[in-house]
Design a protein that fits this description.
Layout lengths: L1 E6 L1 H4 L5 H6 L5 E8 L2 E4 L8 E4 L3 E2 L5 H4 L17 H11 L3 E7 L4 H6 L4 E3 L5 E6 L4 H15 L6 E5 L22 H8 L4 H9 L4 H17 L7 H9 L1 H29 L5 E7 L9 E2 L2 H7 L2 E5 L7 H5 L7 E7 L11 H10 L4 E5 L6 H13 L1
Parallel strand pairs: 1-2, 1-14, 2-6, 6-9, 9-10, 10-11, 10-12, 12-13, 13-14
Antiparallel strand pairs: 2-5, 3-4, 7-8
Helix pairs in contact: 6-11, 7-10, 10-11
Length: 389
């Protein structure tokens, strides 16, 4: 299967050996970050540094001033961790090494945006804001995300893009010194804690026949036994209905699904309008539309009618591929995303077997997370696994 490795510009820039090293893994493609959230990243082979701290979400290229002039919501440029056109420099080196370059664009995940523009953030039923999670129901935020998708995806020389976080983000987020694990929240609890009650979402719930104040009170009441540890918060979507009631649960999902679907449609359309013919557009996706996070919850049939395919998390098992495979048309890309960094829970030593299982379940391509973060030993296992596969 065709394989692509995820890479950051700072893995490549300043290291004259990096591009050839990535090409030597046996991948045909790289998925190179063009817009990314804040992070602290290890660079185990770089001759100039070992740790890169990206202090805030940023674009890793110079944004177009004309596109963003006069707008309150606009992309932030990177600091010293990715100066100038860091993306373009890395992309050129990787292309020169014989690799096809696709952009990696993180969208609705931006803590600096939430800190500087608090009104853009998801607000939970208790009134707490999630600065890392822009509310995708808000018109100005949607317009910002659509334009960011088009600009960051269609960089010079790129042959395609992968759009991450193109949907609802919620409570789950690996924050600095995170302390949210004291009460284990399953799918149902995560959903209830991720429902947004900003003014736009309150209007949306009203359009679905719900009183937003009564809904917020119902969410808090449903979660009370979860905080006490006397009721489970798992059980998938049925668990949400059990905690909140089926009718209000379904009404909230109808509002959120519609906002996510239409945003995905608009973003993909904008990317295609800006891109050359044949440009591939994939979404990082989860087949349960009520799920939140980097792998946006989607309806498989809908997303495969909009985009060219999906990138699906498969570390620990490839079962999430099945709903997409059941809906895939001829030519759709179903990329199995496998973590190959053993220190991050990945299994590079079983790559060949994991890839074979993913293929059985419908995968057409592989994504390997992450060539820049992995040790030499992990990447030697990747080379061996790709030779077998």
């Amino acid at each position: 299967m065709r394989a692509s490795a995820f890479v950051y510009p700072w893995d490549v820039n300043g290291d004259p050996e990096a591009a050839a090293f990535v090409a030597g893994l046996g991948v045909e493609q790289v998925t190179l970050a063009a817009a990314y959230h804040s992070t602290r990243a290890l660079t185990p082979r770089h001759p100039r540094h070992r740790v890169v701290t990206a202090e805030h979400a940023a674009v890793l290229y110079p944004p177009d001033p004309a596109r963003w002039e006069g707008r309150d919501l606009r992309p932030y440029e990177a600091g010293a961790w990715a100066p100038g056109d860091a993306y373009g420099e890395a992309a050129a080196a990787l292309a020169d090494a014989g690799l096809e370059v696709h952009t990696w664009v993180v969208l609705a995940h931006n803590s600096r945006l939430g800190a500087e523009h608090p009104h853009t953030s998801v607000v939970n039923a208790y009134g707490d804001r999630y600065p890392w999670a822009p509310c995708i129901a808000q018109p100005a935020t949607r317009a910002y995300l659509v334009d960011l998708a088009a600009e960051a995806a269609v960089r010079p020389g790129a042959r395609g893009t992968e759009l991450e976080s193109l949907g609802w983000y919620g409570l789950a987020h690996l924050h600095a010194h995170d302390k949210t694990g004291g009460v284990a929240l399953g799918d149902a609890g995560q959903y209830l804690m991720s429902l947004c009650f900003c003014p736009h979402c309150r209007e949306g719930y009203g359009a679905e026949g719900l009183d937003p104040d009564e809904l917020a009170a119902a969410v808090r009441a449903a979660l009370e036994p979860v905080w006490r540890g006397t009721a489970p918060s798992d059980g998938g979507w049925a668990g949400v209905g059990k905690l909140l009631g089926e009718a209000p649960a379904n009404a909230t999902r109808a509002w959120r699904d519609e906002r996510a679907r239409t945003l995905q449609e608009a973003a993909v359309e904008a990317v295609r309008a800006a891109a050359p013919e044949g440009f591939q557009v994939l979404l990082h996706a989860d087949p349960e539309s009520y799920h939140c996070g980097a792998n946006a919850g989607v309806d498989p049939a809908h997303v495969l009618s909009v985009a060219d395919g999906v990138v699906v998390p498969c570390t620990g098992g490839a079962g999430l591929l099945t709903p997409f495979a059941e809906q895939a048309r001829d030519g759709a890309v179903l990329a199995a995303n496998l973590t190959v960094v053993s220190g991050m829970g990945g299994h590079p030593d079983t790559l060949a077997a994991d890839a074979a299982r993913a293929r059985e379940l419908g995968a057409t391509e592989l994504r390997l997370y992450h060539a820049g973060l992995a040790s030499d030993g992990d990447l030697e296992a990747v080379r061996a696994g790709l030779r077998v596969g």
